[in-house]
Design goal:
With about 160 residues, this protein is α/β, with parallel strands linked by helices. It has four helices and six strands. The protein has a five-stranded mixed β-barrel.
């Protein structure tokens, strides 16, 4: 009888431990999903100020669409509040193409920040900026681009 009770307790403790491990795994998955969903939205201006710190990271950027490629719709330009602050977005992931009707709209783009091939590092760019301060910031969209994975239009704010 003692053996049956001991065996029963062992099975009970083992099964409780399995449930705790499963709950911990589910909790970790939920935390990762929440972290991904609550990733901060940054503006084009903030993106430019971040320099290389966000390179190769998935980001969410908000900006005003000032240009959509009329030939393929595979690229668009997002502007920040400062007119010279621009970044190019390329359609990838869930994005087939961008509609020209987006021009003038504010959108949120989720994507990966990449450096255009053959472009100088951030320190080289700063040297160039100091030599040509009139162009500072205006060429950022040529140095970096976003591999757009998804986007959504931001509803216009009512006055």
């Amino acid at each position: 009888m003692k053996k049956i009770i001991i065996l029963g307790l062992i099975v009970l403790f083992w099964s409780c431990n399995q449930q705790t491990q499963q709950q911990n795994t589910e909790s970790n998955l939920n935390t990762e999903e929440t972290t991904e969903l609550t990733k901060a939205v940054i503006t084009v201006d903030d993106l430019i100020a971040s320099n290389d710190s966000l390179l190769d990271q998935t980001i969410i950027v908000e900006g005003l669409v000032t240009h959509v490629c009329k030939h393929s719709g595979k690229r668009l330009h997002l502007n920040g509040a400062i007119e010279d602050h621009k970044v190019r977005v390329e359609a990838m992931g869930d994005i087939d193409h961008f509609e020209r009707a987006l021009e003038g709209s504010t959108i949120l783009v989720t994507g990966v920040l990449k450096r255009s091939e053959g472009m100088p590092s951030d320190s080289e760019h700063k040297e160039h900026e100091s030599e040509h301060s009139a162009d500072a910031g205006s060429k950022y969209y040529q140095m970096f681009f976003i591999e757009g994975l998804s986007f959504e239009e931001v509803p216009a704010k009512s006055l």
